[in-house]
Design brief:
alpha+beta; Arc Repressor Mutant, subunit A; 3-stranded antiparallel sheet; 9 helices; 14% strand
């Protein structure tokens, strides 16, 4: 199949899907190799940049999605009249960070790290579409496992979880010391 035809198919499939589609699935339906699909993706990406168009194709881990360019969101909000802007609180950001780095993780594990109840923060993050249920842990009570969503990756401008910044080793030790101090304080209060 010619690259020109593959680009047209890729564009049409992503438009019709309305959501991210895996490169494997595109390769399967077009009967092309993955590297050919990725070449079509890269060419389309360049085409959209040159033409100063209102759409772009983004890569989210092993998936591709046709999206409106971010600088056009104010216009979309006016037409949608249902502006979905939210401001994350420090508590929600802290909770989201724990989920992002520890996933899959239970609410109880998040609370153990934070040291406080996280029901409200987790519920909001699920409501905002940044966190989702991944399944259940094979343990007593079958607690729900949580992880981040593709919307989380889009919102924070990363292609995959591997692109999240690493925590510096000196901060890990600092966090460990703070956690030990808090644990000792709690223990002394209970005694």
């Amino acid at each position: 199949m010619e690259l020109k035809e593959l680009k047209a198919i890729l564009e049409g499939v992503l438009f019709a899907a309305g959501d991210a589609v895996s490169v494997d699935k595109i390769s399967e339906i077009t009967e092309c190799e993955k590297d050919e699909v990725m070449q079509a993706f890269e060419d389309l990406t360049e085409d959209y940049k040159k033409a100063e168009r209102g759409i772009e194709i983004v890569r989210i881990e092993d998936k591709l999605q046709l999206c409106t360019k971010a600088d056009l969101y104010p216009y979309l909000a006016k037409i949608a009249k249902n502006k979905r802007e939210y401001q994350l609180t420090d508590i929600q950001l802290e909770t989201l960070s724990i989920v992002a780095y520890k996933q899959p993780v239970t609410k109880l594990q998040v609370e153990a790290i934070r040291g406080v109840n996280s029901d409200h923060a987790m519920n909001r993050l699920v409501e905002y579409g940044l966190v989702k249920e991944l399944g259940r842990m094979d343990a007593p009570g079958k607690p729900i496992l949580f992880g981040t969503t593709d919307d989380f990756l889009r919102a924070f401008g990363v292609d995959s979880l591997d692109d999240l910044p690493e925590i510096a080793p000196e901060h890990v030790e600092e966090f460990r010391e703070e956690a030990e101090e808090e644990a000792e304080e709690r223990l002394s209060v209970k005694i």
